[in-house]
Amino acid sequence: MWMRYFIFTVIISSWNINSVRIRTDHIKNYLKKEKIDILFLQEIKCQTDQFPEEFFKNLGYNCYVNGQKSYNGVAIISKKKLDKIDIKNFKDPNNQSRFISTNVLINNKSTQLICIYLPNGNPVDTEKYSYKLEWLKNFIKYIEKLYKKNKNIIIGGDFNVIPEEIDVKNPEDWVDDALYTLEIRKEFRRILNIGFKDAFRLFSNESEQFTFWDYQQGSWNRNKGLRIDHFLVSQKLVEDIKNIKIDKYVRGKIKPSDHAPIQITF
DNA sequence: ATGGCTGAGCTACTCAGA
Fold first, then answer.
1. How many whole angstroms separate alpha carbon A66 and alpha carbon A252?
2. I need a labelling partner for A172 at 20 to 30 A (CA). Which of A24, A31, A102, A135 fits?
3. Alpha carbon A179 to chain centroid distance?
């Protein structure tokens, strides 16, 4: 008797795109080259009805969008239709569009996929920083509640958090920055302590593995970057991760986003 | 040795990013 095993791999990527409308061709090339099944987008910088839905539909992708005029905005695009799209169950303290969630099967496990774009939080002595802190505290509460109901959760996005020293070129320059204050990094660890792993660090202990390079100060050419885009994967799903990598080459293209995508395979 | 940007909204700049 023949036994046939079907291995369904799912490739999920997360990319702060810094305007979706201006970078549709970059996204098109990336989806095709990397055979992405599900793409999380942050900083789409448009309202929901301005999202280039037809463009992605023609490439065979379904679009799910939580847009906002001018700033922020997140979206998920997916080859397969997605269920249980949610933009409301996480309450943003300033009513900005930084959250979208859905549910998919990963190796037959009903899995919550969460795409986030955390506030930057600079400068630290302003309400921007307190907004970031409040956002994180709300998010932790949201995840704790969710985790009681479902142990299969993947959180991906632009966290605007540098987790550790090795995730930035010159840590000493960043101690008072909202991306690296001890206070913010502790909140990040609090998410991990609920029951998550920083998936990239399961596969690499190397330094200088960055996902963002500023447009200014020759940051790209000098490789002065930050690792601030992450996938946090709940313990129960860790065994299902096949690979995770930063698609750094994307940052070297003409008129790129200042972020590179991070790609995880299940 | 040091490091000059980019996008949206709008039309002259400001705001925001990290």
1. 28
2. A135
3. 15
Please count the residues of chain A: 266
CA distance A174 to A244: 26
Q: State the alpha helices, DSSP H only, in A150-168.
A: none
pLDDT band at A8 (very low <50, low <70, confident <90, very high): confident
Whether residue A3 is contained in a domain is answered as: no
Is A250 a domain residue? yes
Nucleotide lying nearest to A117, CA to C1' measure: B17
pLDDT tens by residue, A188-223 = 999 999 999 999 999 999 999 999 999 999 999 999
* Mean pLDDT for the stretch of residues A134-147: 98
On the CB side of A125, CA atoms within 13 Å amount to 1
Protein-contacted positions of strand B (CB under 7 Å): 3-9, 16-18
Residue A123, preceding peptide bond in cis (omega within 30° of 0): yes
Closest nt by CA–C1' to A47: B8
CB A132 within 8 A of CB A121: yes
| Nucleotide closest to A259 measured between CA and C1' | B18
User: Would you say residue A240 lies in a domain?
Assistant: yes
The answer as to whether A1 is a domain residue is: no
Beta-carbon contacts of A38 under 8 Å, excluding residues fewer than 6 positions away, are: A10, A11, A12, A13, A76, A77, A78, A79, A82, A104, A113
Q: Which two tokens stand for residue A252?
A: 């070297």
Enclosing domain of residue A102? 11-265
C1' of B4 to CA of A222 (Å): 15
